[in-house]
Design goal:
With 405 residues, the protein is of the alpha+beta class. Helix content is 39%, strand content 15%. It contains twelve helices and nine strands. A hairpin with a 2-residue loop joins β4 (67-77) and β5. α1 (109-121) packs parallel to α4 and α4 packs across α10.
């Protein structure tokens, strides 16, 4: 196991640990000397890192997606942790456990795949079921479907993320079809299973997450159409009209032309698939944004381009608010307790709790001066009235009007 994960980094902490290089740039100081600007990561997140000294000795020894062991100091820069690297060396693949460096679904991929197969087996449209079984029975497609992330960065960007996203989407499809009963649930579920299947080849996920050449040139929608075409050649009786509906759902599931869809959704199942897909991806993006945010202070994450906003860290806000209210209540209760101590309460206190400050001798009374104004009446020694907040607290703990109720 790694000595230190990204999520465990603390300000002013001196660490020695191994990370995956997610980004690497060689830049120049004002003096002209090189320095390294890196993004280092593991399965818990990523951290910005800089190496200022002795850079020439190491800058050509590693590249992006390499493992490096670093020693450095964690500091806070622009409200985020930043690692200043003092020493760095390349680490061979055999020296690390890959599971420590690549984020993965918390669910078991085999369990998820079995759940997906059960969903497909329950479909009543034999043609759609045969198409999906043909895809999922393919050993290479099945292996990649278990592993692939749903995206490089935006949502479900971890191993098994595609499968987790599809299962979530299938659940949403079933709930929506129960409400909109005119929908064809078989068609909707088939669209959910295949809408992103092209990502098994669009993305590279053997080390870091990136786009393959095929993904860059074609995109996952076109790749999905090719995969389906290959399986339909073995299903000569598959209805041509049903094929067209499935292909349209794949081509339109991003919803808008500017979002990469060649077509916009033009029948109810296609439109619903788009909105459910968008909903599930955005909900996961919000969750992950909060979970992986590295802002040190404040209740908001940094700006999330895919959501076009920062995300409010609700749990942290409520936790801090509860702590603040607790402190106010404790302070008020202390004030009430002091106000309610009787004048002779010190007699009941332990000797150690009674201060031994001597009382000064009372001065002798001055002779009356006829010209002086009448003396001011002594101030009342009655207990200080409690504040409205304190009175409510008194009522809550069973004290009424200064006497026990």
């Amino acid at each position: 196991m790694k000595p230190v994960y990204v999520k465990e980094l603390q300000e002013n902490q001196l660490i020695t640990s191994t990370f995956l290089v997610q980004a690497k740039e060689i830049r120049q100081k004002k003096t002209g000397d090189p320095f390294l600007s890196l993004t280092l990561g593991d399965r818990t997140g990523e951290v910005d890192a800089k190496m200022w000294d002795n850079v020439a000795e190491v800058m050509d020894t590693f590249e992006r997606e390499a493992f490096v062991k670093v020693k450095g100091l964690v500091q806070v820069y622009h409200n985020r942790p930043q690692l200043t690297i003092h020493k760095l060396r390349l680490v061979e693949d055999g020296e690390v456990d890959f599971k420590d460096y690549f984020p993965a679904s918390e669910r078991d991929p085999e369990e998820m795949f079995s759940e997906l197969r059960a969903t497909v087996s329950a479909m009543t449209d034999e043609h759609l079921r045969a198409l999906l079984d043909g895809l999922l029975d393919d050993p290479e497609i099945g292996r990649r479907y278990r592993m692939a992330p749903a995206a490089k960065q935006i949502h479900h960007a971890y191993l098994g993320g595609l499968l987790e996203h599809v299962l979530s989407l299938c659940g949403l499809c079933k709930m929506a079809a129960a409400h909109y009963q005119a929908l064809d649930l078989n068609l909707l579920l088939a669209g959910a299973v295949v809408h992103d299947i092209g990502k098994i080849h669009e993305l590279s996920y053997e080390r870091g997450f990136s786009y393959t050449t095929e993904g860059q040139l074609l995109g996952h929608m076109q790749i999905a159409l090719r995969l389906i075409d290959g399986k339909l050649r073995d299903l000569p009786g598959f209805p041509a009209k049903t094929r067209m509906l499935i292909e349209h759902m794949i081509l339109s599931h991003h919803g808008k032309l500017e979002f990469g869809s060649p077509k916009t959704p033009q029948f109810p199942e296609a439109l619903l698939l788009h909105h459910l897909d968008d909903l599930d991806s955005k909900m996961e993006c919000m969750r992950a944004s909060v979970a992986r945010d590295r802002q040190v202070d404040g209740y908001f994450t940094g700006y999330i381009p895919s959501l076009e906003r920062s995300v409010f860290k609700k749990a942290k806000y409520l936790e801090q608010t509860d702590l603040g209210v607790k402190a106010v209540i404790e302070s008020a209760v202390t004030e009430i307790a002091v106000d309610k101590v009787p004048a002779d309460a010190s007699a009941a206190l332990p000797l150690a709790a009674v201060p031994e400050t001597p009382r000064p001798a009372s001065p002798a009374p001055a002779p009356p001066n006829p010209a002086s104004p009448a003396p001011t009446p002594p101030r009342s020694t009655s207990p200080k009235p409690a504040s409205p907040f304190a009175e409510k607290l008194l009522q809550a703990i069973g004290v009424n009007g200064g006497e026990e109720g």
